Every structure is written in C-alpha cells, then in structure tokens.
Amino acid sequence: MNTIEGNLPLRSPLHAILAPTGIAVVGASADPTKRGYKAMVGLVKGGYRGTIYPVNPKADTILGVKAWPSISEVPGTPELALLCTPAATVPALIAECGRRGVKGAVILASGFGETGEAGAALEAEMMEAARAHGVRIIGPNTSGMFNLHHHINLLALDNVTPGDIGIVSQSGNMLLSLALEAQHNGQVGFSTYIGPGNQSDIGFNDYLRYLGEDEHTRVATLYVEGFRDGRKFLDVARDVTAMKPVVVYKSGATEQGQKAASSHTGALAGSYQMTVDLLRQAGVSVVQYSDEILPVAEGLGRLQKAPGKRVAVISDGGGQATIAADRLAEAGLQLAELSDNTRTALRGVLLPQASTVNPVDVAGSSDANPSLLARCIEIVMADEGVDSVFLVGMFGGYSMRFAESLLGDEMRGAEAMVELANANEKPLVIYSLYAPIKPPALRRLHEAGLPVYASIEHAVRVLSALGERGEYLAGRAVHVAADPVQPSVAGQTMFKTARAEGRDLLEFEAKALLAEHGMAVPDEPLAKSIDELNDIARHFGDKPLAMKVVSKDILHKSDAGGVKLNLVGEAALREAYQAILESAYAYDPSADIEGVLVTPMAEKGVEVIVGMLRDPIFGPVMMFGLGGIFVEVLEDVAFRALPLSRADAESMVNQIKAQKVLAGVRGAAGVDKQALVSLLVQISRLVEAYPSIHELDLNPIIAYPESHETGYAIVDARIIVERDQ
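Below the sequence we write its predicted structure tokens.
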C-alpha cells in the first residue's frame, strides 16, 4: 500500500502547545456540569502523562489532583492553559499566563468578536495581551482540543480511539458526529482535534501545517465555515498535500448556508464554488456531503492515492455492478478497458456464464469458493490499463448466506487480498452489503488497513479522491507558473493617469494594454468626433461594423443605448454616432463621453469569459467559463488562484461542463483550446506585472477553431483600477 512522502521546510511552533508536557486547567471544577470538570476527567481518566495543574482558589484538590489558587502560584511552567472562565476574565488571565511562561491558551468562552462590537473590543484586548506576553491563542469560542496519542482529551469525549485522522472543525457538533460515526465504524481513530473558534490568532493554515508534520496523522480533515487568510492556507496546503492527503468539507454551499456560517463564526464565507476550485488546485480533496467526510478521510489515510482514474469493478451481482458503473461515471472516473490477456486469464478461473468485460460479473463462480474473488483481483491488478480495483457485492457474508463451512475460504481470500494490497500501488476498495455486520473476513481486511464500505456511493467517492490525488501528485512537476513579464512605461502611465482622475481604464485603454502584451484585440479606432468617421469608414470599407460609447460614467453600454451593430458605410456610422450620443446623454446628462469605438463585427464563434478579481480572502483569482448571457444563466465557470501555470489554465478550460459546446455542435468546428489556455496564462502574467489591476472582465471573448489566425477575439474589456496605492 502507499506511504507518505515529503517534508515541510520548517517545524510548526504548535507542537509544544498541542502536545504539552504540562497543562493548567483554569476554572477546574468538581461540578460535573462544568467544562472545568470535563477537562479534568479527560486528563485524569485518559491517562495524561504530563503534569496537571488545576487552578481554582476555592478548592484544595480536584479529582485527587492538588489545586492552586492562580496560574502565578503553580510550581511548574505548564506549556498550555485551558481557560474555562467567562469572557471578561480572559485578557487578564492571558497576561498572567504570559508572565508565568505559558506558551499557549485554549479559550472556551464565547462573547468575543462573533457577538458584535463590544465582543470585538474584548477580543482585541485579549490579543493585545497575548502578543505582549508571547501567548498563542486557540479560539476563543472553541470547543477545545484533544491529542489522543499524548493522552490529552480536554473535551472528555468517551470512546474516541487513537488513530491517524487529524481533525480541525469549526463546529463542535460536527466533531461529535464524526466521533460517534467512528465509534460505530469501530475501525477508525483520531490523532489530534482542534476547534479553531474565532481564529483570533492561530488559523486553519497553522493547524494544517502542524497536522502535516505530525507523525501520528496520515490524513488532515477540516470542517470549514470560513477562512481568515485563504491565500496563506493555499500555500500551506500545497506543501502538506505533497506529503499526505487533506480532506475539506466547506459549508456555505448556498446563499442561506453562507449567511448562517457568517453569523456563526463572524468570518466571511466567500464564494463556495471559488473556494472549492482553489482548494482542489492546491491538491485538497473536497467532499460535498457531510456523510462523506469520514469515509473519504479513512480511505485516503489508508490508501493515499491511485495512479489514475481507471477503475476495474469485480462483482458477484449484476445489479450492484451496474450501480457501481453508474456512480463511477457520474464521479468522472473511467471503467478500465481490460486487455485480452486479462480477460483470457479471468475466463480460465470463472464459470462460462461469467462476464469478463468491465464490470466483471463472476456470475456464481464464487458461491462455493469465495477466495476466487482474490484470484480475480490479482488478475485484474496486473493489467497495465487498471489504476484501482473495486470489489462489489457480498464478500464477508458467504458463510452466512450459503454455508458456515465457507468461513475458512473467506478468511483465506481476505489474507490473499491483504497480500495483494501490500504488494501493489493500485488501491483495492471494497463494498460489501455485509459491512454493517462486521463479519470476520471483513474485520481482517479492515485491521490490515483496507477500508470496507457499506455504501457504494461512499466507496466511489473514495475511489474518486484517490484518483484525483494521484493525478495531482503526478502533475505537480508541470504546475510551474510562467515567467513574469515587466510592465511597460505606457501601461504604468495609463494606470497613473486613471488613478489621478479617479476612474478605471476606459475600454480602448484596456484593449491597448492587452494588445501591448501580445493578446488578440480587434482593430478598433476611437472616434472622438463625427468628422473622424469619414477616414474610419474608408479604413474598413464594406465590412459590417459595431459602435460602442466610451465613458467612465457608463459601465453598462447597452442599458444606455450606447451600442449599435451591423453598420455599413459612412452614412450609417454618422447616424449611429448621433443616436449613441443622444441616448447616452439621456441616460446620464452629466456623463463624460470620450467618443465611440468602431470595430468590425466579430465573426461567429463560441462566447467565453475571462475574469480576474482580488478576493479579500484568497487574493488574485482567475475565472473562466461560457460568456455572454450564459455566464449569469448557467454559471458554468472555473476558478484558479494566480499565478497560473499552463497546467492550471488547461484544467480551467477542461473543467467547465459545456465541453460539447467547446468541441463544436451541429457540425461546427471545435474551438482552439490551446489559444484560450495561452490567453489565460498571458492574463495571469499581466496581473502580476500590474498590481494596479483590481478587477478584470473580458466578456465576451469569441473563441474560434484552430484554423483561425488568432484563435479568439476580445470583444469587450473592462479593467477596474486599484485605488489604494
């Protein structure tokens, strides 16, 4: 099976805090209803091997451990303090902890920035004390933390088993749900849990870095409502995903969910689709449903990756094989095409009625000999066209379904599967309808590190995550950003003038900037007066032309009657010019109008959009999708963080769902995808060269076939200027 590889460059400072040799429980209590009691129970009964310092001025001992009146009076120097006291007491306690040499504090209390202005002021006071005294803060408004391999359980959760799944969750109830699910599963355990709370100090990126380094964690799993510093998180994620899998469930997929997340954490939820795309760009496995979190974390933790997305299905029932094939296709996985040699070998061990095409249906061949399934797996795994194997059906339950005498054969089959899995980089994922019963053969598989699922859908989601991770790791070498370009003097002057005049770039300026940096922009002179139309008409001859108003005060030209199409000849241009000015001034009498742009009507093609925004959480982000009216109606777009590599750009173009539109419909030729990829990379470099670009919108861009001279034409361009420079 697969192993974890890679190293982070620097060691996280959180190791001393999350694996401390001494813990002070401030507000420790003998009252079972108090969090200070729960924490003491978790430490004492959990067998914590460090020193426990209960702090309570009204008690001599708590749960048999000597108590102290204050942090200042404890005899040692605890590395971590758990504060179980009200919010108003926290700033002073943090200062006291700092003077005592405490390195970190877990703050359970709510009533800080998530509650409004007064709480935000208290949070600022707390952070001022923390920075002044060198204390790192987990929380506030956190559910707490545990580190089971160090016997630290500040939540006093029962029946949590040490294991290799590290969790960071902004919801304490989500942790409880996962813990109960793991308890029911019986084979899943946890390494570290942290509730980040308000992330006043330590954020998701810090916790992820720690889990990336933690020797007890094979997969980092995060429930996220909102990031404070998304750009930094992506940077850390790129490092960690090179070493071990990272699974994220991002809440706020709907407008209602985003509002709920914001009110719960005080954090911006951001655009869900954008967040998911950027996380996947960094190698993160994003799950869509909450019940997928633990199955995917378990599967990735145990199996790590698959070489690709070609799956071979082996089944002892045709119906479930069909269901598996449907779910695999929906997940973007491929049914591997088995070679002639593989099919011949399968026919040599299966009954004549068996199907040896993928999905392989053994059709009763295993009823009297369940270990035959292991032989089928061995044959299929040897096929170079197979990246992973999916066993579907009733393995583990043959002795229950048919005869008890088959148990020994099932156990031998399980041992053979374990040997195959250990000897191969190709993962084996198992769905069994007997999984909820946990029969001996399935327990043996699980104990050996092979995940067994009671849901075909969960198993397929794991296979998808394994394939995505394998492809991501294989492609890391080519995910190199293009060399940056230098800004031109003319471009810098353009932005300086726009900022001085308090405006954005005018359309002709934006297109001039794009053209200067090698992008395909149509020939479109600016007519500042009606008298200039004579020369323009001669220049274009009998080509049908379009005219558009140019004004910093009119952003939506069509709404202002500022666009005229299919104009031929000087007379038509003059009439259109006059009509545009009249409509524009009627729309905004005070509008400052530079003139009108005149350009040939664009050839027919596929309309796409390219956009860039400087997101407050993730920094500069690129968008690509179908353009024109489709961008708002279909919302078929892809996002990536800048800078883009060529591989990033290719994945954007290939991600959108309307691939059939790009490939050509009704006999039309497909668009030149590589020209679009080059354009995306050029725009990425342009944004790097000009920090003054706050937002960019090219919509529509007309995409053309490969036979076209340029492959695309930028019909409309808008560049919003960053003001604060």
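The two ends are 53 Å apart (CA to CA).
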